[in-house]
């Protein structure tokens, strides 16, 4: 089992608030996010972009391992993910993560590649996470 950590801090509230995201690895170190980065194209990141990156990376790695199990040892995989955030029922909902894959795998047929890719999509941990239990621990500082 592995446990990875990240943290978010938000100062101020609503559109005027400003946040930052930090990951244990340091890949993100107080990376700015907020209303402007999420909805207005301002510099920084947002939760949906991070989900898209995680989904593309996880799926691609799962597919790589599936291809290796099937006996393929060479090639390349390029995946992009487009995560859609829509306003629904007075709030916002992530409604879709659209994966787009381009693969180069010498010797594989289109049907076998599609089958292995579909299995990877169903079984990658981030695909499973997008419909998972969520827990919350909270505290309030004055």
TrEMBL record:
Gene Ontology biological process terms from the UniProt entry: response to oxidative stress
PANTHER family the UniProt entry points to: OSMOTICALLY INDUCIBLE FAMILY PROTEIN (PTHR42830:SF1)
InterPro entries from the UniProt entry: KH_dom-like_a/b, OsmC/Ohr_fam, OsmC/Ohrsf, OsmC_Ohr_Peroxiredoxin, Peroxiredoxin_OsmC
GO terms, molecular function: peroxidase activity
Signal peptide interval: none
Record's protein name: OsmC family peroxiredoxin
Phylogenetic lineage: Bacteria, Pseudomonadati, Pseudomonadota, Alphaproteobacteria, Sphingomonadales
